[in-house]
Amino acid sequence: MVAKPPSVALRDLRVKKRGKTILGPLDLDLEATGFTIVLGPNGAGKTTLLKVLHGVERIATGTVSWSMPRSRMDQEQAYVFQRPIMLRRSVRQNLAYPLALLGRPKSEIAIQVEHWAGRVGLGNLLDQHAPRLSGGEKQKLALARALIRAPSVLFLDEPCANLDGRSTREIEAVLQAAHSDGTRIIMTTHDLGQARRLANDVIFLSQGQLHEQGAAADIFTNPGQPKTKAFLQGDIVE
Amino acid sequence: MNDIWAGLLAGFQLVITLDADLVDITLRSLKVSLSALVIASLIALPLGTWLAIRRFRFRRAAIATLNALMGLPPVVVGLIVYLLLSRSGPFGVLGLLFTPTAMIIAQVIIITPLIASITHQAMRELWAEYHDLLISLNTTNRQRVLTLIWDGRRALLTGALAGFGRAIGEVGAIMIVGGNIDHATRVLTTAIALETGKGDFALALGLGFVLIALAILLNFAIHTLSRTERHDTW
After folding, report:
1. What distance in Å separates the CA atoms of residue B172 and residue B193, rounded to the nearest whole number?
2. Residue B150: which of B112, B122, B131 has the closest Cα?
3. Which of A70, A52, A54 is nearest to A14 (CA)?
4. What are the extents of the domains in chain B?
5. Nearest to A129 among B129, B132, B233 (CB)
6. 0.90 surpassed by pTM
């Protein structure tokens, strides 16, 4: 069971790269619970927003305030990248790695590894060299490696990009189970169908600006902004 | 051509009969070079990895210097170590000159930049691959260095073997600081130099073939033990 997730508030936030503002100015509040999907065209700042929330992106101005101390927050969150990063080790060792960093006992690590490998369908591949897994298997391993620390908040950057339908369905099932267990999930995706299936609430970004934020049901049925509406209709939005 | 055949024959005879002097010299060569390799690796592996993951003001200059030091002339290293360890030098009181310890010190100075530079190159690529994950997992610098060294161990093994190859084949520095004293500091390379000077090319070649065989055998042994070719990975 995960700890109670924290809420977060972003105020007057800007991220700059080579002197150009790529995100912001942005004011955003995210509740402590829920499954948030961040939508927007390429270059909208979705990944940058996730990285800012995760604390690995340098901000030019503004503040990011979690409802728990930053030091504790660092232990309470996990991130799954669009291109899964595999340690050059076995599946078992990849899963064990985050727990070993925390100094957990070997007996506990072994139990958790078996549990999570089974949960994502990699139980029979534990001794396989992780970089040799298929794309879907790698992403499932990355997801299990993120969830094995029982994070309060899980960030996912297009975790199902380039995956087949079966892998996507399996990953979504794991995400919904994690959400049911109390993990706060914030995820970017280009797949509007996936967004409809998973989202409690939606953030729509375009050109680094927050255009719309609200309950998924409201935004998908009655978007308030022309850009959001155009994007949801499949038009090309910049 | 006759000298080469005679050298092969001499080397074969020395090995078959387990010539006492050959065994003594070979063991000393191994002891000195392996000691230097272990010490240099303990310095170079963390240093090369640290240079790969840390950003600091004079990083480029530090890496350029490290690469330049790979080409350190062994004779100059020998001369400097000689001056430092000689009776009038700052470390003369330790009485290390013309001992295997002095030879190890010289070899450590020669091979540390080589191993560190190869380590840096290998770790830079691995760090680019792991960067986002290790940052995301909120790892400490120590955890990052240890992770990179462990996962990049096969590439580092290549660096260590290159260092060993340079150490065991080195003659200039250890001749100066070791003195090539029989039963004390004589190693394969200095023995070869001595026999060549005496005109005994067959024995010199024989020792040379033993040296080459030793380097090849050790490489094979390390590769086999570390299973570098397992699962098509390198």
Report:
1. 10
2. B122
3. A52
4. 28-196
5. B233
6. no
- Report angle CA A195, A199, A203 to the nearest 5 degrees: 85
- Please report which confidence band the pLDDT of residue B234 belongs to, taking 50, 70 and 90 as the band edges: very low
Neighbours of B233 (CB within 10 A): 12
| Nearest CA among A161, A164, A121, A125 for reference residue A144 | A121
Contact B43, B112 (CB under 8 A): yes
Residue A133 near residue A86 (C-beta atoms within 8 A): yes
B230: closest chain A residue by CA:
A129
Chain B residue whose CA is closest to A128:
B231
The C-alpha atoms of residue A150 and residue A116 are separated, in whole angstroms, by 11
User: Could you count the other beta carbons within 10 Å of the beta carbon of residue A59?
Assistant: 19
Question: Are residues A199 and A172 in contact, defined by beta-carbon separation less than 8 angstroms?
Answer: no
3-state secondary structure of A13: strand
Contacts of B130 in chain A (CB under 8 A): 85, 87
What is the per-residue pLDDT across B140-153, written as a single tens digit (0 to 9) for each?
999 999 999 999 98
Which of A116-150 are b and which e, b meaning 16 or more Cβ less than 10 Å from the residue's Cβ? bbebbbbeebbebbbbebeebbbbbbbbbbbbbbb
Q: Helix axis angle, B100-136 relative to B74-85, nearest 10°?
A: 110
CATH topology of domain A8-232: Rossmann fold (3.40.50)
CA A14 – CA A52 distance, rounded (Å): 10
CA A86 to CA B138: how far, in whole Å? 16
Q: Output DSSP code: residue B152.
A: T
CATH of domain B28-196: 1.10.3720.10
CA–CA separation, A101 and A43 (whole Å): 34
Peptide bond before residue A151 is cis, with ω within 30 degrees of 0? no
Q: Which residues of B touch A101 (CB under 8 A)?
A: 137, 139, 143
Q: Residue A10 and residue B82: Cα distance in Å, rounded?
A: 64
ipTM higher than threshold 0.90: no
A104 at B interface, C-beta within 8 A: no
pLDDT digits (tens, 9 = 90+) for B106-130: 999 999 999 999 999 999 999 999 9
